[in-house]
Amino acid sequence: MDIFEFFFGEKSDSDLHTLSKSGIEKYDREDYVGAIQDFSNAIRLFPDNPILYLMRGTAHLDGGNTFHAEKDLFSALNLDKSNYLILYRLGMLLHKRRDTTSGLRFLIDSYDTHQTEDIEEWDLGKKKMLFVSKRTIALTIGDFLIDNQRFEEGLGYLERVIEHDPNDPNSYHIKGMSLAKIGRVREGIAYVKKAVQLGSPTAEWSLKALEQIL
């Protein structure tokens, strides 16, 4: 099974595959106008497919057209209210528009419904239009919550980032610096030291800077 069979079904129309593949290839080249045209052609043929609106909305979003991105992403949501990626893209769009409350709600719903980690190793294209890891979503939520002074909630999501990949030094580095940011420097140093132990060269610089604060 390839990525298109996974999203559209094994017996889906060949035109759907062809237009979607072409659109994703153009999206990967940052030819957003061309990608939008391919996805629009596919939508004319298959107007009830939520993934097509998701893809076109993503191309609009990355191309800077938030108005059309929002229309497409809400169209996708109306067709599939449990797709984690639709929820994620909407959360990012609304956060970009400074609707932090709604953005976080969609992002948290995205995290809670994410169940497709097993496709991460597939050929998903250069920019991975159709995949975001659960770890990335947790990191995004954690950062946004801390920025909005919801510290304990944010730190909880950053701990989940570590749980998703306990051998990744960046996860410890990020949580350590977030703790330091809110004044919990000693706790932060412990996490940054763990990042250093796991081989992060950037964490070494952070550790030196934090130790000078004490």
TrEMBL record:
Which controlled-vocabulary keywords does the entry list?
Answer: Repeat, TPR repeat
SUPFAM superfamilies, alphabetized: TPR-like
Checking PROSITE patterns in the record gives:
TPR
- Annotated signal peptide: none
Among Gene3D superfamilies, the record links this protein to:
Tetratricopeptide repeat domain (1.25.40.10)
Pfam families xref list:
TPR_16
Protein's UniProt keywords contain Repeat: yes
Q: Where do the TPR repeat units fall?
A: 16-49
Output the PANTHER family linked to this UniProt entry. TETRATRICOPEPTIDE REPEAT PROTEIN 6, UDP-N-ACETYLGLUCOSAMINE--PEPTIDE N-ACETYLGLUCOSAMINYLTRANSFERASE SPINDLY-RELATED
Official protein name in the record: Tetratricopeptide repeat protein
Originating organism: Persicitalea jodogahamensis
